[in-house]
Every structure is written in C-alpha cells, then in structure tokens.
Design brief:
The protein has 494 residues and is of the alpha/beta class. It has 21 helices and 16 strands. Helix 11 crosses helix 12 and helix 14 runs antiparallel to helix 15. The mean pLDDT is 96.
Length: 494
C-alpha cells in the first residue's frame, strides 16, 4: 500500500494520512491540507463511458490509500447512486453557445450537495479506520448553501453533531428557511450578527484555540469542519469537471482531448480549485474564467496578483458570493509555488495588514490559467433576463454572474474555445430576484416561486416545494464575538 499523505500549506504540521486529514479538517498551524504526493494523471479514454458513481470512484481513489478503493465505491454509491440525485447526476444543458453543468440536482438544490452528500460517509469511514471513539462536532460557516447541504448530509449520522453558523441578514429568505426548518437529532443552526467572513474566521479560530482543545480533551470530543477548508469537501468536486467534459465528448460536442474552458461563479474558491486539480490530473482545460459579484476581491487578485481585503463588504442578490476572505485561494498559492514558508508569510501579511501580493513567478502562472470579471446587481438581473429571452434557459443569480462574465470575456478575448459554465443553484433558491429579472416585477419571495413557475414552466425542485410552511426549529441568534464561547459551551454539553 502506497502512503498518500497530506501537508499543511503553512508547513508546520506533521504529515497526516487521508483519514486524519478528513477528521482534522484544517492544519494545526492554521493552514489548509494539500496532497504531499504527486497527483497522477488520469487516462481520459478509460473514464469516457463511466457513470457518475464509477467516475467518482476512479477520481477519488487517486487521493486515498490503494487498498480501500472498493470501500470508496460503496460510499460513492450511497452518496450519488441511491436516490439522493436523479439518475443523471449532473445534466449538461445548452444556453446558446454555453454549456451549463447543472450541479444543483441533489437534496438541497445547490452545488454544495456534490461534496456534502459524500463527506459524512468519508467522515464515518475515517472514524472506523482510525478506531476513533470520541464524538465529532462538525463546525460550518455558511453564506447560504453550505449550511443546508451540510445539515442534510450530517443529519442523524451516528457519532457526530453539527453546528452551522449563518449571517442573519446575509442569506436569501429561501436559504434561511431551508436551514431553520432542518430536522435531525444532532443538528444546530445559529444565526450570527455579522457577515460570512466573521463566521468563517471564528470557525477557523476555533480549531486553533488552546482553550477549546483542552475542553475537547476533557469531554472526549474533537472538532472537524464541513467547510471547503476540509480536503474531503474539495476532492469530490474534482469529479464533476471530468464528468461534464465526458458528457460533451459523448454527445459529440467535442473530441476526446479537445481543450475546453470552464466558467466558475466564485466566492470561497473551492469550486474552482477543484478544477485546477482536475487540470493537473490531465483534463484538457484552457482557461478558468472566475466570476465574482460586487465583492470582487477575487477579480482584483486574478487581474493584479494583489489580494486586498481592505474594502467595503456588500450584501448582494448573489449572497453566496458575499465573501472577502476566500479561504481556498491559499491552497492555490501553495500549489503554484510549492513553498510553505512563502505562503505563511503571505498569510501573516493578510492577517496583519489585510493585504498580500504574490511574486512575479506565481502571478505568471496565475495569468496562464485564470482570467476574471465581475457583475454588479443590476447586471445580474439584466443577464438573467437576457439569457432567458434569448435562449429560454433560466439562470439563478450566481450562475448569471458566471454567464455575464463569460459573455464579456468572449467579446473581449475573441476566444472561441467551447466553455462549460458551472451552475451552482436552482433559480428557485433566489426566486424574488429571478422573477424580477424575467418579469420586471418585484414580488414577495414565496409568491415569486409560484409566479416564476407559471411564467417559465421550469419545475420547482422537490426540496423547495412547500418550504414556506415548514415549522421553524432553530431560533438562536448570537453576536459574532460570542461564537468561540458558544462552541465552548456546546462542547461541555455534548
């Protein structure tokens, strides 16, 4: 058995095996865990005709011990093959000349299901492999979709409990309703007075808090993460890049080996980072077109090489991208330079001044692989309306950011490479904005669901039907400064 170990991007963590990496979630030095081994290139021909479960098994087995491939197949079957998703797990539709990979067919109607349907199985499998008898407390910060998908994934999973923190004014009404009505004996949803970055920063701090570590030891608990800081979130996302590419090959839209571009609506950058890993595994990807909303910190980084978080934070109609601290960018910077001390320096600078700038070598690699743009809120609505009018395809607000940025890129660059846009959510997760975009009328969020359905005939996803009338089960709201203390109290009670 070849050992596949994981290191921290900041270099001060002993190497961990796959199971420890899943369970620990984040480096003990505050860094993110990355493969310490050479990631093998895949044989594209061998992947071409696989169904989603088999493709997931092949891709994911690249990152795990060789002797458990069949176990992983069983976990992938539970996640993707036993009815949580339709038989076509990721349909690829066409809107004009853009191919749209619909990543929102799962149990919560958002792309986070692609990884969070599998992560709880990774977690329980890893607990078993390590003979771990402590209880796991899963912590998650959410800007909207991660929360519900994590809650649904970990609901009633033995040996775990999950705490999800969301900004009370920073998610859509439908996203909030999905979370606060969540059932399950081991789930807890907590509103915070603050934004997503406040929640994410507190969750990261919790993992490195000496006080919480001591409490965990006293109460036989350990903390883990369901956010994309956990490598177990990232690895399953690589699969849909290969799968959507092969769908185009099998539909005879492209030849096997032909280069495509991907457009990715981006907030925390995990979705795109998975694509960059897929490219390193041999998938023929030209450019990644990064799309941001008005919180355009990533656009600025990919255009200048400088990451500057000293800026105003905006609440927008694409709330899952209302983020200024883009965690997974740290992994990209590490992968581009392979120098943990350099990453540590950048992260210290970010912590102390709110700014870091990568060196010329790293930035040259950035420009080779990535381009970026952003849309404001009016442009988001215009894009939804124009796409629906011209192609009949209904975009949600986040996918619209991607579509609009791609159209601008296409115009400016004259790049005619076929492009797959990753669609991150059902339009019914943001019905007020989407209905306004196609009708010109502002409506109550829940009335807009029915009106949108009447107008477009696009079916309402099963997970969102009747959501307005579900009983609210979670009413806690705390100050952002109280998150660490709250977690401490929860450890004592666990």
């Amino acid at each position: 058995m070849s050992e596949k170990m994981y290191l921290s991007t900041r270099g001060n963590q002993e190497p961990l095996d796959f199971y420890q990496a899943i369970l620990q979630g984040i480096g003990s030095d505050g860094g993110l865990l990355v493969p310490a081994f050479q990631i093998e290139k895949k044989d594209l021909k061998a992947l071409q005709n696989l169904n989603y479960v088999d493709m997931a098994t092949e891709i994911i087995s690249t990152f795990i011990p060789d002797d458990v491939k069949e176990d992983i197949r069983g976990l992938c079957q539970k996640a993707y093959g036993d009815g949580l998703f339709p038989s076509e797990v990721v349909p690829v539709e066409k809107a004009g000349d853009v191919y749209i990979a619909e990543l929102f067919q799962g149990p919560t109607a958002a792309f986070k299901d692609m990884a969070l349907s599998l992560l709880p199985h990774f977690m329980t499998f890893s607990l078993k492999q390590k003979g771990e008898e402590r209880e796991v407390m899963i912590l998650a910060a959410t800007s909207g979709d991660t929360g519900k998908a994590a809650l649904e994934g970990f609901k009633d999973v033995e040996g775990t409990c999950i705490k999800v923190f969301y900004p009370i004014d920073g998610v859509s009404p439908v996203q909030k309703q999905q979370m606060v009505t969540q059932t399950g004996q081991n789930v807890d949803v907590i509103g915070i007075k603050g934004n997503f970055d406040d929640a994410q920063t507190a969750v990261k701090k919790a993992f490195n808090s000496q006080e919480l570590k001591e409490l965990c030891n006293q109460h036989h608990v350990f903390l883990s993460s369901a956010n994309s800081i956990n490598i177990g979130r990232l690895i399953p996302q690589i699969v849909y890049y290969f799968y959507s590419y092969m769908t185009l090959v099998n539909k005879k839209e492209i030849q096997l080996g032909e280069t495509v571009n991907f457009t990715i609506p981006s907030g925390n950058f995990g979705n795109c980072l998975a694509g960059y890993i897929a490219k390193n595994m041999g998938l023929p990807i030209g450019k990644f077109i990064i799309a941001s909303n008005k919180n355009n910190i990533l656009t600025d980084f990919f255009n200048t090489g400088q990451y500057d978080a000293n800026r105003e934070f905006y609440k927008t109609n694409a709330p899952a991208m209302d983020i200024l601290v883009s965690s997974n960018l740290e992994r990209l910077v590490y992968m581009l330079c392979q120098d943990a001390s350099k990453v540590q320096t950048y992260m210290n600078q970010l912590n102390e001044t709110g700014v870091y700038e990568v060196d010329a070598n790293i930035f040259a690699k950035v420009k080779e692989n990535f381009t970026a743009g952003w849309l404001n809120e009016e442009q988001v609505l215009e894009t939804i309306g124009a796409c629906y009018k011209e192609t009949g395809y209904l975009l949600d607000t986040h996918t619209a950011v991607g579509y609009g940025v791609y159209k601008e890129y296409q115009k400016q660059s004259q790049d005619q490479t076929k492009t797959i846009l990753l669609s991150t959510a059902s339009p019914y997760k943001f019905p007020g904005s989407v209905y306004q975009a196609v009708s010109g009328e502002k409506m109550d969020e829940y009335d807009a669901v029915d009106l949108l359905n009447e107008k477009t005939k696009v079916p309402v996803p099963t997970p969102l039907k009747g959501i307005k009338d579900r009983e609210i089960l979670h009413k806690k709201v705390i100050d952002k400064e109280a998150i660490i203390d709250f977690i401490g109290e929860q450890i004592k009670e666990f």
